[in-house]
Amino acid sequence: MKNMTDELLIETYNKALKLNADTDFIQLIEQELKKRNLELKKEKA
Questions:
Q1: CATH code of the region 6-35
Q2: What dihedral do alpha carbons 34, 5, 3, 45 form, nearest 10°?
Q3: Tens of pLDDT along 15-39?
């Protein structure tokens, strides 16, 4: 995750939500977003 750009991380997060990805995977992304102080802007499915 460290190699991902902020934009790619946010895109990945939104796609994971849309695809109902594994909860652990989504939480992992959320932790990285918080670590980078990025806002969680959830897109509507």
A1: 1.10.287
A2: 70
A3: 999 999 999 999 999 999 999 999 8
